[in-house]
């Protein structure tokens, strides 16, 4: 379930995933581990905190003295998703400077998920998220031709003097087909792991749906029963 924390809870408009884990007995047998690999691109204007976000998520650390990304940096995060599934996340931290944008088609290739980040204290970085979203949608799609899931992250929520209000973010998220959005702080570690877990869950659902569709199209010999629709209340 995806829920929005409202003002009555004293919080921000945060999209947070409630993950339900089913415990299943394996009757003493060691389950066979399945390994899945996902490539996630992290994009946005320079200095919005992309590198700090990756460092916080992968190493649980924060550095004030970092150098701007040149081209692209890579990081790997391994998740034990369940007793039978391990996920390897390839995180591509892509530079936001204009001189590197001509390479984005190469950087985006085979990506299955995306994070577009902006700085809550820098309004132009928020306005430019639409440019980044259009760039991703035009260059990168899933196997079925649909856009890759894309999270909108409003970073530096620990800082005062914001230049973007929550209603503007909510409107952009709804109008431009973002998968979800949340405020984050790479410095304080706020909603970093939660936002990534939400994105991974979306990618896993899409991967499982694609696998099921492929199996049904090649193996099913009788008409399929109607599938119940899955609804997320946002």
Automatic annotation (TrEMBL):
A Gene Ontology term for the protein's cellular component: membrane
Keyword check for Lipoprotein: yes
Keyword vocabulary terms for this entry: GTP-binding, Lipoprotein, Membrane, Nucleotide-binding, Prenylation
Compartment(s) where it occurs, according to its Swiss-Prot or TrEMBL record: Membrane
Region (Disordered): 209-230
Membrane topology: Lipid-anchor
SUPFAM superfamilies assigned to the protein according to its UniProt record, in alphabetical order: P-loop containing nucleoside triphosphate hydrolases (SSF52540)
Keyword Zinc-finger included in the entry's annotation: no
Top-rank taxon: Eukaryota
UniProt cross-references to InterPro entries, sorted A to Z: P-loop_NTPase (IPR027417), Rab (IPR050227), Rab29/Rab38/Rab32 (IPR030697), Small_GTP-bd (IPR005225), Small_GTPase (IPR001806)
GO terms, biological process: vesicle-mediated transport
Protein task: The small GTPases Rab are key regulators in vesicle trafficking.
Name of the featured protein: Ras-related protein Rab
